[in-house]
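User: Predict the complex with alpha-L-rhamnopyranose.
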Amino acid sequence: MFHKKSRAAALAALAVSVALIATGCAAGDSGSGSGDGGGSDNLAITFLPKNLGNPYFDTSSSGAKEAIDEFKGTFAEVGPAEATPDAQVSYINTLTQQGVGAIAVSANDPEAICDALNEARDAGVKVVTFDSDTNPDCRDLFINQADAEGIAKVQVDLIADQIGGSGEIAILSASANATNQNAWIDLMETYLASDYPDITLVETVYGDDDDQTSFDKTAALLQTHPDLKGIISPTTVGIAAAARYLSTSEYKGKVALTGLGTPNQLREYVEDGTITAFALWNPADLGYLTAYAAKALIEGDITGAEGDTFDAGKLGEYTVGADGVVLLGDPFEFNADNIADFDF
Ligand code: RAM
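Assistant: Here is the predicted structure with alpha-L-rhamnopyranose placed in the model:
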């Protein structure tokens, strides 16, 4: 169901998204967001992922669309082909000009899009980050998929178990500036040092959430470190590319691979023994929760202050925590015994 998209397909998706926005604006919502805390009925909410063509964000957007259809707003998705630090700026500027009610963005960099987001907010647009945050002073809320310590711990515990608690490991990350991956990597390093002194992290490389780059970086890691026992890839793009490389190489079953992946992308590699277990949360729920949070901000039900509560449809009621963060839940571990139960 979620196949890797070609760049042409990604661009076609972009064109459709732009058309959707145009339709949303023509539908005549009442201008931009409240700006005065009084609330607005402009439920045009546009999702801006790190990049297009990533099944993880296809799934988060499908959850967002479900939510926005429920409350009869206007869903759209736009985004760059590449997950570079400032690639999202021009999209944010366009959305500000269009006067959407809210932008929901997964940031490629904590700082690079801040000015554009604050201009949007000055114009009355609500800004919700999800998945990968900006600095807190450039958004109203951050919808966090799971506690960062928990995400770091599950991946380190998995690799430690898979390599027998000692030896060399490497990390294949997303882009070098990604807020979420960098936070998790810091915490993984701390946890490795305190709990697994016999495991050595020899290198961290960056596949830029690009399939081919991630594939090539995997090959290079294995060549550079002949004693490598395992790879952690805390990105759905990276782990799928690394699995594809390992599955037809001499390292299959010898070099362990874990991290954060989608069940649909990794199913064949769990079945062929390249991967034994990995983790993630439900990206559809993340998109769904983000959409409801945006609605609550637009309508003036919440401002993003700690203790604010809002209704998130089928997920129930959520409370805003410190620093404007809303937590979705816990990461989940997938393996051969349960992967058949999931379809995303
Ligand atoms: C990729 C992206 C995303 C991250 C997941 C785990 O899809 O980098 O930001 O949350 O992996």
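The pocket of alpha-L-rhamnopyranose is lined by residues 50, 54, 56, 106, 131-132, 174, 178, 180, 209, 235-237, 260 (CB under 6 Å).
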